[in-house]
Amino acid sequence: MPDDDPLDTRQTLLLKIRDADNDDAWNEFADLYTPVIRNYCALRSVHQQDIPDVTQDVLATVARAIKKFEYDPDKGTFRDWLFIVTRSKVFNHFNKKKKQPQGTGRTTIHQLLEEQPDPKEQIDWDLEYKKQMFQWAADKVRPEFKEQTWEAFWQTAVDQVPTDTVAQSIGLSPGAVYVAKSRVIARLRARITTVTGHLDLPPNVA
């Protein structure tokens, strides 16, 4: 199969980290997902000095539970599962502290972290998750493309510059700009599936 076939690459990293002795896979997993977990903790007002401990707690839980995780799009994604784990660890953190986060305006822990998350909480998590996946994938695939191709993609897909304007500025036809953009997006999606099992890009990348 081609290197960018999402069905061929799906769940690769999630499968690798099931092997507790695969240090390279775990290091890659931690590098990729730690920023998402840390940013969520910060949004939920976990004190800065406590964020590393909560993050490590999340990663340890993933290490113990990943062997039982099965990717089934009908039941939910790894992103959703990691959100539940992270949210639970943040709740446990405040429960142990017996105090509410600063600056929330809430009066109890249970008001802050209800059994069912606030829709905005899920939206914030999903957006941060997708942004991190995009940044990681962009760093990985950029060396595969000529600078002109990458500029065509970045200016049209990320900066939202009109295709005709980009074509003029980088010396390509509008059709060539569209093809370049499509090639890079396809490669980004394929790369992301190697770690998430599904095709995730931020909404601003179009």
Structure write-up:
The chain is mostly helical and about 210 residues long. The chain contains 10 helices and no strands. Helix 3 (about 25-45) packs across helix 7. The longest helix has 23 residues, at about 120-140. The radius of gyration is 20 Å and the shape is elongated. The two termini are about 25 Å apart.
Structure characteristics:
206 residues; mainly alpha; 10 helices; 66% helix; disordered N terminus
Estimate the helix proportion, in percent: 55-70%
List SSEs in N-to-C order: HHHHHHHHHH
**What is the strand content?**
under 5%
Label the structural class.
mainly alpha
**What is the terminal separation in angstroms?**
26 Å
Q: Give me the count of strands.
A: 0
Instruction: Give the overall shape.
Output: elongated
Mean pLDDT, to the nearest integer, reads 80
| Oligomeric nature of the chains | single chain
How many alpha or pi helices? 10
Per-chain topology:
Elements: H1 6-9, H2 12-16, H3 23-43, H4 51-65, H5 78-97, H6 109-112, H7 119-141, H8 147-158, H9 163-170, H10 174-196
Helix pairs in contact: 3-4, 3-7, 4-5, 7-10, 8-9, 8-10, 9-10
Please sum up the structure shown.
The chain is mainly α. It has ten helices and no strands.
